[in-house]
Amino acid sequence: MTAEDARARVRGYLLAQAEKNDFAALWPRVMEQRGALLAAFAELTEEQADFRPASGEGEAAWGAADLAQHLVASTRNVIAIVTALARGEAAPEDPLGTLGAPYASFVDARRALIDVSLEFAALPGRLPDVPNIEATVEHGFFGPLNCRAWFLFQRVHDTDHI
What we know:
Structural class: mainly alpha
Number of helices: 6
Mean pLDDT: 93
CATH topology: Four Helix Bundle (Hemerythrin (Met), subunit A)
Number of strands: 2
CATH architecture: Up-down Bundle
Distance between the termini: 22 Å
Low-confidence stretches: none
Radius of gyration: 16 Å
Strand order of the largest sheet: 1-2
Shape: globular
Largest sheet: 2 strands, antiparallel
């Protein structure tokens, strides 16, 4: 399977599930992956989180502390995109591979990740009862996605980083 085939497969999954399911039906699957991600981070010491691979570029050079920082920033961005799209408002673009602001320690980054995860978990309750599912924002890999596809994308993103 080529990289393009894999992208098309994931895009098809996101679009089909977003059309078939409302936020309440998507929520358990998305939160299950976020819980697994948080559990993986809970096991790490500061020393383990600070370890970085000897080689690699971009995300391949990140340690767990960098990854936590990235996940906080990207989750905040997904929250903003989902919220704006669901309300039919202008949404921010998706900045690929962003790290966001550094934290003083891994403990602080992990705490921020827990906080943003709680905010993300509560997101469906803050959205309109009938969300706008026509509006889209371009994802750098998967093309235009509506609010429900972006919400489900977080599951794919979390899975990639576990």
